[in-house]
Amino acid sequence: MEVSVNARFLSRPLTGVDRVAVELTAALSELFERDGNSLRILRPSGPISLAPGAPSALFENSEILHSKLKGAAWEQFALPMGLAPNAWLLNLCNVGPLFHRRQMVMIHDAQVFSQPDSYSARFRSWYKTAQPTLGRVAKRILTVSEHSRKELVRFRVAPADKIAVVPNGADHILRITPDQSILQRHKLVPDGFLLAIGSLAPHKNLPTIITAAQSLGDRSLPLVIAGGGDSTVFAKAGIQNSAGVKLLGRVSDAELRALYDSARGLLFPSLTEGFGLPPIEAMTCGCPVVASTGGAVPEVCSGAAYLLAPQDQAGWRGAMEELSANEAFAQRLRDAGRKRAADYTWAKAAQKLRSELVAVGALTQAKSRRHA
């Protein structure tokens, strides 16, 4: 029996969801090869986008489904027409063909329903139509945390017994060679700054920690914010570079790795997250994490981060001061984080996904070619 991957994600600049799709597809392909099963990777024509460290040969040799249709139209019409009879389709980026039944769809979170102000009207309209439809049509819905599963049930995207959890991995960050030039360019020194990653989307809650950082008496440990566009984007929201806050704008994966390696700690104040990949990436790199109690973050961090209510500004300020002054506090978080991060690998995620494929009948068995 054949399993095909909807690899439309290769045809656009990679988002966080696309990164998950790349890593999970690569790990699943390796698992299938060992088991003697076949994984067909289908993509539109045109150039592909891959992050550093991704297995380029696997995706460059993927199968092109030629069509005049592009983007969502290719996904909805050309893709299902290109599937082999009785093939199963695996969609890892929140949507898939609305009228194809032999498929699994990974819906990463329910934030288009719970945090609508973080998305454009067009985006909201499409997801609010497509995802409940897929919840009825697809044989299985996948998501990345128990929190997201409960939210998808709460917003009636799919019933609980139809949703399975396949957590993300984070070990891809270790394959990336850090680009230390970002430190010199922004006059940052190892262990001499606090890091935050995110955008001005309301649910990312960056203003809380920005205000906390600006209120510190000792500003020798600045808050460095990576992501969310260039400084003009923040300036329009009244946020500018200052003695206590540095805005880096978008950074490459290699630059992000260097920031994780060098930061005194990561601050992650989101109001809600379907998973929250940055804390686990940071933990993988040995960076202490202070995170919010929002969404799936406590579930994912599971005692390995110092947790605060998202809008507890005094608490965030206190945590910044503690990270700055208390090496034992930072080391405890560092050690606990490395231990927790070991639970989140792409190999483990692929094994869980394979078990779900077996459960729905997409794979008849997990054959093994390995020998004792």
TrEMBL record:
- Which keywords describe this protein according to UniProt? Glycosyltransferase, Transferase
State the protein's name.
D-inositol 3-phosphate glycosyltransferase
Native organism is: Tritonibacter multivorans
According to the record, the segments passing through the membrane are none
Where on the tree of life does the source sit, at the highest rank? Bacteria
Task: Give the Glycosyl transferase family domain ranges.
Answer: 191-340
User: One Pfam family this chain carries?
Assistant: Glycos_transf_1
Which EC number applies?
2.4.1.250
Question: What InterPro entries does UniProt report for this protein, alphabetically?
Answer: Glyco_trans_1, Glyco_trans_4-like_N
Q: What Gene Ontology molecular function terms does this protein carry?
A: D-inositol-3-phosphate glycosyltransferase activity
Q: What CDD domains has UniProt attached to this entry?
A: GT4_MtfB-like
Question: Which biological processes are named by the entry's GO terms?
Answer: lipopolysaccharide biosynthetic process
Q: Which residues form the Glycosyltransferase subfamily 4-like N-terminal domain?
A: 100-171
